[in-house]
Amino acid sequence: MALPSVMVLPLLIVVAAGVYYIYNEVIQFMSKSLVRNKVVVITDAVSGAGTECAHLFHKGGARLVLCGTSWDKLESLYDSLTNDADPRETFAPKLVILDFSDMHSMEDVVAEVVECYGCVDVLICNSSMKLKAPVQSVSLELDRNIMDINYFGPSTLAKGVLPTMISRRSGHIVLVNSIQGRLAVPFRSSYAASKHAAQAFFDCLRAEVEEYGIVVSTISHTFINASDPTPVEEAAPKPNTLSAFIAKQMTHGVRPSVLANEIMQTVNRKRKEVLLAHPIPRVALCLRSLLPSFLFAVLGAGVKDSVLGEQLQ
Description:
By secondary structure, this protein is an alpha/beta fold. It is built from ten helices and seven strands. It has a seven-stranded parallel sheet, sandwiched between helices.
């Protein structure tokens, strides 16, 4: 007996939803099995995204090496991971103090990280230092500090674990970068410069180590938004609506849990480049390549509007 035509569309929707649900369940199951027993190093593990990552990989049975600048926070994360965990299914994480602002300690820290398990399967470079200020107000010392944390630190750590990966002809290095590594935004010169440098370094590294079976991935995201959503307020009209709209979209953050899931999927599927952003930043990236003069004009007008707003306050 044939189905009435009015029933075909709802039935297709139900079937599609069922297939999508099953697909997600299979992917989640595979995500856990693929990282089991893998040695995974996470820098800045006590940050929002780092903590979410630690929980995901720990549940998947990975052997974690958690790095951070605060021993108390690392111990607190350790307790939250192990208190409710099944010791037959998970490994107790190892903790390492890592401060990219102290580059003189990097040689010893790299040795300690590698010695935890004798090798590294996955390195997740998650550390970052942000700064919003006019160029002329940023000191050279602060410029260097940002470059240490956002560029020299991750690149030095990647170089440190590379020999063991090359000798084993396997490994995965993930740079959790920023969309500002591909698109510069006013008042973030030092931050954007450090992220551009990191993007370039890991792009070069990807090509150089591919022959050894090593995967290098970069994840470019908008700002991490760990705060609760704020109530919507009616904003006063601004002189340059377009630039204000673009600026607002550029600062739309991603939730730490969303970023952590993306990192897990990147590791499992060996993706080389991931863009985690809203449509407007994606359009801005296209404009940067196709119509740079237009984008520069919009950003420049936005700067003028912000200066005017400060003068009127």
